[in-house]
Amino acid sequence: MKRNFLLLLVLTQFLFSCKEETAIVVPAPEFTVYEYYAVHEPVLVKDVTKAEHYLWDFGNGITSTDKFPHTWVYTEPGIYTIRLTTYTQGQKSTTEKQLKIGQYYAYEAQLLSYYENYELEGGDMSGPSEGNPDVYLQISHYINDAEEVLYKSEVRPGVTKEDLPLSWSFYPIALGGSAVLPPYFSPFFRFYDSNADKADRLIAHNLVTGGSSHLQFDKEKNEGQYSQKRGGDDWGSHVVVKFKMKFP
């Protein structure tokens, strides 16, 4: 009887010892994020695994301890690794996902309407028509307050309203912008009326004071465009710029 009691005591201690030493299994954390974004585009994560504590590393020097971190942006194109570490009951678990950050590049500009007078040069909006313009497109940006021309097209003579819309294709040009400014703020897409005996006249461009802007981008098709319009459907400045995203 005494022997059986000792065996039962040893067996009980063994079972409790095994139970105490059983490791807590914490599943690998999960989250959902779209596979690519543009520079300065806010990144959003969702479907984050439940845990007690979180540590995010976005691969650009920024970290967060929130379950759903506030949106963040990348300022340079490249491939970044997002690392999520979770802590549950003293156990640590980590997962990683790669994110591609691209840059918008314009490849085509369209002229849908233009001013026939000097409205965009500070003239009277009701001023007389200057006739059918000899149109060319100039793309430029500013470096240290100096204008740098990135592209200048050939002149298309005697463009009438019936000729519109007109399109210009060119080698890819990076679109600017920032975390607070949209891509259509840089570079400048300006359409001019070429004149032999006086200064060329600005007839339309992509950043007109008082105009309305619209930006759209289809990530699945990698096709986007923005438009800037001031005036009506058949008068005023109306410009469309088409772009794609490119990766380094």
Automatic annotation (TrEMBL):
Residues 54-85 form the PKD domain. This is PKD domain-containing protein. PROSITE patterns: PKD, PROKAR_LIPOPROTEIN. InterPro entries: Ig-like_fold, PKD_dom, PKD_dom_sf. CDD domains: PKD. The lineage of its organism: Bacteria, Pseudomonadati, Bacteroidota, Cytophagia, Cytophagales.
